Amino acid sequence: MRVFVTGGAGFIGSNLVDTLIAQGHTVTVYDNLSSGRKEFLTAHLHSPHLTLKEADLLQPAALTKTMEGHNLVVHLAANPYVRLGETQTDLDLTQGTIATHNVLEAMRHNHIHDIIYSSSSVVYGETTGSLLSESYGPTLPISLYGAGKLGGEGLLSAYAGTFGLRCWIYRFANIVGRHGTHGVIVDFITKLNTNPHTLEILGDGRQCKPYLYVTDCVNGMLHGYTHSHDQVNLYNLSCTTTTTVTRIAEMVVEEMGLSSVKFAYTGGDRGWKGDVPRFQLDPNAMNTLGWTATYTSDEAVRKAIRDTLDANL
Amino acid sequence: MRVFVTGGAGFIGSNLVDTLIAQGHTVTVYDNLSSGRKEFLTAHLHSPHLTLKEADLLQPAALTKTMEGHNLVVHLAANPYVRLGETQTDLDLTQGTIATHNVLEAMRHNHIHDIIYSSSSVVYGETTGSLLSESYGPTLPISLYGAGKLGGEGLLSAYAGTFGLRCWIYRFANIVGRHGTHGVIVDFITKLNTNPHTLEILGDGRQCKPYLYVTDCVNGMLHGYTHSHDQVNLYNLSCTTTTTVTRIAEMVVEEMGLSSVKFAYTGGDRGWKGDVPRFQLDPNAMNTLGWTATYTSDEAVRKAIRDTLDANL
Fold first, then answer.
1. Do B33 and B153 share a domain, yes or no?
2. Is the predicted ipTM greater than 0.90, yes or no?
3. What band does B272 get if pLDDT is binned at 50, 70 and 90?
4. B81 and B230 fall within a common domain
5. Distance (Å) from the C-alpha of residue B142 to the closest C-alpha of chain A?
6. Would B150 disulfide with which of A67, A274, B34, B123, CB 3.0-4.6 Å?
7. Alpha-carbon distance B232 to nearest alpha carbon in chain A (angstroms)
8. pTM > 0.80: yes or no
9. A81 touches chain B (CB under 8 A)
10. Residues of A assigned a catalytic role
């Protein structure tokens, strides 16, 4: 299969490319390298099975031309920093919703029908229910990142209904692991490298979310694609467990071999405006398809801490 | 109150302006007159309570400047033709989601906190359930119009969560009545004026939807605004009944005083790609707030037919 991966040099994208190439597929990575890194694809840069196109999704002509001849699009590219929307209010509109529209238009022009899309648990917003299934509604995101993802979901669904596209929409838990470039684990390690005595923790540390290891995420996306055949396939992609921010901090301290680190909480129930402090995703629909996460949330976090520490050695 | 109404020269907007001015409010209409008409505001054009600004939502500087000093924004402007998205694939992205983003940015710059937004029942997409409540999910629109509206909902919700905005999101039934410029009633009357013997009906005529009279819509929007005080207030705005397309055709024929009109169905279960053929909205949440539709769906349709025939006299 010829697979076109937007954001394929990024965190999740580069892990996906490893798997796709190992499975014998030919891959084109389309990435502007704004948060993706060429070095994440080092193993394949001289492979005939990988083409890297350094370009932006906001260049529709380049996008349409490069996409020609592929069978499947995996659209992962987006601003990866949820909290940036607070200060750059057009970022998620542009790099989220509008970029997704450009991807769909390029598919339409090239008569490509299948797309896998990385949505996010943040589309649910701040909910009162404990366990969020895909049928939870209304989806009221509290971050501009979430609005961008929800806008993307709507576009995929509309192109399915109007132009016959088939789509696989995944609402991701927090994905962590090898090639991770952002998020709470990277933040904590960076802070402790600078000051190993005191760790600033945003909020009260009781924020509690599911963390999914990146290989579980990649395998889940591909499993759903081969096992679910509706026109619009929408799934939570998550483990069943969760981890608190304070527990992450404790594990980072342990894995870095530090002791007597003082945790300095900034206070409040959340890290920043637009942060959803507590949620749990119901992975039952994906489980029914035959996929389950290999790692618990705590295991995923610990593995990701080790990955990040190894990468910095 | 100083109310800023986008699309205020349009169908629903001009009816809203009548009510707002009758209630003693001062209104600024911001409209590019692409589907709105200055004549819909004739009664107020010389009133000190109405300012008409002919400009586009895609002009952020004009928008921000004009919005200054208002207390409430009612954002109704959008492409009103659901089926256009099939051929003009950037229309609902631009005039829907991006325009809504511009409205929210202008509010943020002007420190205006309250917005009423016209979403649509089409955000639900094609559903299996019979009666759609606001908690129905996932919302998977099948038209690009629906994607634009869903993208707008997400943006309002995100600006509420991130910047403290308060929003009233209404998922409208099919709104009909005075100043209606498009939709099945106008289409049928136009066709029968040209050919009073045969009426082409898109689909099989069994499409069945709730039709809400425009004054019910206007009163519902304002009722929810004064009676619901959450940060994000999301409501279906609908009557409890529905009307089939064939029944509408029969009523148009009756009201036009025609007889022996042959109905020529184009066939298929829907009018066009992206048309949701059958749905019913649960208005229970609005009913609980103390609002109910004055007219049944059939009554609304008949009243709207008479309005349209009167307007053409």
1. yes
2. yes
3. confident
4. yes
5. 4
6. B123
7. 8
8. yes
9. no
10. 145
